Amino acid sequence: MPRAPSEKAVEAEKLFKQGMAMVDIGKKLGISPGTIRSWKNRYGWDLKTSKKNKCNVAKKGDKKSATLQKKKRGGQPGNQNAKGGSGNPHPSKKIAPDAALKHGVYSAVIMDALDDDERELLEYVSTDEEQLLIEEIQLYTLRERKILKAMKKYREQKGDVTVADVTRVEQKRNFDNEEDKAEYERRVKEKIDKGDRLPGNSYSISTHTTNKDMIIARWEQELSSVQSKKTKAIEALSKHRLEKRKIENEDSGQEIVDDWISAVVEGAEGI
């Protein structure tokens, strides 16, 4: 896979496509013209623009000769896409949501569904890949600690049975209008004043118990899942840093080569 051009090389290519001479580009960016010339040859700046919208088409009735003609807009003759239909060349295969988000297909729909607080929050979300991985590892570490604390709490409990969950059930009354609600509250107050009813509303609680070893086993399963995701995030961060360091070293080494090429080319031009 070819190495991506540096920021200065990208800027130099933009200026070159705008029609600026290599000498002027070198003066503006502080780079020798020989280095810019080597970038031009390495990344093929001329090839990207010289044959745009052109293709070899044989003349009708003459198979030996061919002329350069501009492509017509839309599907070309013989192309499967010329028959119309979906933009997906494989209709049976669904486009992955991640790919759609990457190309902005659903971004407008998502933004329309966000409220003001969520939009404001998005402005503070970092787009730096390394920072996002670090924050992900931190969140997994916090989750890991909470699970360990929960497991410790159950292990320290006496006995084999522990409370799994508690359910509270209340009786509610619906009213068609505010007048009915006010009349109900008035009659309840009368009964309370006469002593026919105690104040407050009644409710019931149901408690479910289970073996604490089963709860600990579920926490251990969750802990294993969190630790696995944390390990993958750490590996991704390590890989990202290695690739970043490799690119920086390649750029540094390539600049030395570019300067050497520049000196040789300028020396040859002087001769």
Q: What spatial form do the alpha-carbon principal axes imply?
A: elongated
Give me the secondary-structure category. mainly alpha
Helix content: 55-70%
Strand order of the largest sheet: 1-2
Report the biggest beta sheet as strand number plus sense, adding barrel if it closes: 2 strands, antiparallel
Q: Using DSSP, what is the number of strands?
A: 4
Query: Measured on Cα atoms, how large is the radius of gyration?
Result: 35 Å
Counted by DSSP, the helix tally is 10
Q: Which stretches are poorly predicted, pLDDT < 50 over at least 5 residues?
A: 51-70, 81-87, 89-97, 99-104
Helix and strand run: HHHHEEHHHHEHEH
Distance between the termini: 37 Å
Mean pLDDT: 75
* Beta-strand proportion: 5-15%
Structural description of this entry:
- A hairpin with a 7-residue loop joins strand 1 and strand 2.
- The longest helix is centred in the last third of the chain and has 59 residues, at 212-270.
- Mean pLDDT is 75; it is low at 51-70, 81-87, 89-97 and 99-104.
- The chain is elongated.
- Helix 2 (22-29) packs across helix 3 (33-43), helix 3 (33-43) packs across helix 10 (212-270) and helix 8 runs antiparallel to helix 10.
- The protein is 59% helix and 11% strand.
- It has helices at 7-17, 22-29, 33-43, 45-50, 97-102, 107-113, 116-123, 129-156, 178-194, 212-270, and strands at 54-58, 66-70, 161-170, 203-211.
- The protein has 10 helices and 4 strands.
- The protein has 271 residues and is mainly alpha-helical.
- A two-stranded antiparallel sheet has the order 1-2. A two-stranded antiparallel ribbon has the order 3-4.
